[in-house]
Design a protein that fits this description.
The protein is an alpha/beta fold. The protein is 24% helix and 22% strand. It binds guanosine-5'-triphosphate and magnesium ion.
Length: 198
């Protein structure tokens, strides 16, 4: 199975000749939960970002309370790549978090095998519209609980219960800024996807 021990330094890298499977994964979550940070932390190629400055037009639309230092937002997608083993490569597509870009899910979800749902335990309520989309597009998902500095820590089962998740949905702690943590979270998702095909 996959292992985070193969994390490569970032750079221009071609796919190895031993690669047998490429898997498309969506990285989803509400506004400002850390999707772009996650893809940037983990990608072995220079990540593609589509960030625009948050302008006054978003006043009253985007809730900046949880991330007051945030100045940009994703307007189309993030893209990155992670080689998980000699034979398995993940292509990561981060979705925009703002509800007004929801129609992009239609295209982004095509061919995706599953989704990593990032949640902020302090703003769990904002995850429900995203969970609805995950369900609508039929994406099996694992949940990464992004622990922001200074926020209290929560038991994973509390998060599972609050989000009303099925008992077999993996719920794991995750620091989106940390490459190893991000890789471990993706491995949890891949193992879950694999277990569903057994
Ligand atoms: N202090 C702190 N900041 C964090 C942590 N995790 C994420 N952040 C910050 O939270 C913000 C998250 O921003 P993004 O990664 O752009 O979030 P996003 O989900 O892509 O946002 P949208 O695309 O606008 O929906 C960034 O400013 C991160 O540096 C954390 O654990 N602690
Ligand atoms: Mg983003």
């Amino acid at each position: 199975m996959a292992s985070a021990g193969v994390l490569h330094e970032r750079g221009p890298m071609h796919l190895g000749s031993s690669v047998q499977s490429t898997v498309k994964i969506l990285v989803v979550g509400h506004f400002g939960v850390g999707k772009t940070t996650f893809v940037g932390s983990i990608s072995e190629i220079e990540p593609l970002r589509t960030e625009e400055l948050i302008t006054e037009a978003s006043t009253g639309v985007d809730d900046l309370a949880g991330t007051p230092d945030k100045t940009t937002t994703t307007v189309a997608m993030d893209f990155g790549r992670l080689t998980l083993s000699e034979t398995l490569v993940l292509y990561l597509f981060g979705t925009p978090g703002q509800q007004r870009f929801q129609q992009l899910w239609e295209d982004l979800s095509i061919g995706a095998l599953g989704a990593l749902l990032l949640v902020d335990p302090e703003r769990l309520g904002e995850s429900f519209p995203v969970l609805d989309l995950v369900e609508q597009y039929g994406l099996p998902c694992a949940v990464g609980v992004n622990h922001f500095d200074g926020s209290p820590s929560y038991a994973m089962d509390e998060v599972r219960e609050a989000l009303n998740l099925p008992h077999d949905t993996p719920v794991v702690p995750c620091d989106v800024r940390d490459r190893k943590s991000a890789a471990d979270t993706l491995i949890t998702l891949v193992e879950y996807l694999h277990s569903r095909t057994d």
